[in-house]
Amino acid sequence: MTASKMTVNGVSVCATGQENYERFEARRGKWFYQYDYRHTDGELFSIVLPTLERCRQERDKWLLDKNNH
What we know:
By secondary structure, the protein is an alpha+beta fold. The protein has one domain. 23% of the residues lie in helices and 41% in strands. Strand 3 (19-27) and strand 4 form a beta hairpin. The chain is flat, with a radius of gyration of 13 Å. The protein starts with 6 loop residues before the first strand and ends with a helix. The relative contact order is 0.18. The mean pLDDT is 88.
């Protein structure tokens, strides 16, 4: 496995209000996306799922929950 372009010394480099994602092969033939989104308040949402669409759906749920509190 190659080094991630999404972190420096284990810390996400995701900019405020932006998303970063990277596709990787976890096992032979099993592909996933590492997905990060940094909210405008600085909080980081991070998830690993098989599709980018699912990652964004989970981010949207997180945002709705965050905004309702």
